[in-house]
Design a protein that fits this description.
Length: 170
């Protein structure tokens, strides 16, 4: 039996929900108040059997991020289950600096597979602990936003915040 904790906090980009395991590692997170939507981001074989609503340690890092400490999310432990390529990709996402987004093609190069642009995009799409593993920092070639599970307005807001664009900060 695996036990997890879930918490929803308010952010300038809307409700943000964090699902953490018993050790405090973030399993999934995103901009929704719906616990089922967050649970749905976790692979079925890795979903907790029991979830309680309590404060998570990761919530303080999210609030600090929104207060301007963009590196506050860097030290939050996460737990993801995937293939070796996915795990390497999620680690690489954590190394992308705020305000310095990559294109999917550049991300594929970072992964050591320059021609694997679709695989790079898939790694971003399957990322469960959004914000803590900053898949929002990967863009289409040419600078287009591309996709984002939590909506393009949230992605645009995060990128603007990280670029220091005061007019878009909330």
């Amino acid at each position: 039996m695996t036990i997890a904790t879930i918490q929803t906090i308010d952010t300038p980009d809307g409700a943000f929900t964090i699902l953490s395991d018993a050790g405090g590692r973030v399993l999934a997170s995103g901009w929704t108040p719906e616990a089922e939507r967050i649970l749905g981001r976790v692979r079925p074989d890795a979903r907790p059997s029991s979830v309680s609503r309590r404060e998570t340690d990761a919530a303080a890092a999210v609030l600090a991020y929104y207060e301007g400490e963009l590196d506050a999310i860097d030290g939050v432990a996460v737990s993801q289950h995937g293939t070796p390529r996915q795990l390497a990709g999620w680690d690489a996402l954590r190394r992308i600096s705020p305000g310095r987004p990559l294109t999917y093609a550049e991300f594929a190069v970072e992964l050591g597979s320059p021609s694997a642009v679709r695989a790079a995009a898939s790694i971003c799409a399957r990322n469960a602990p959004a914000l803590f593993v900053p898949c929002h920092r990967v863009l289409r070639t040419g600078g287009g936003l591309g996709g984002f599970a939590w909506g393009l307005p949230v992605k645009q807001s995060l990128l603007a915040r990280e670029a220091g664009v005061p007019a878009l900060l909330g």
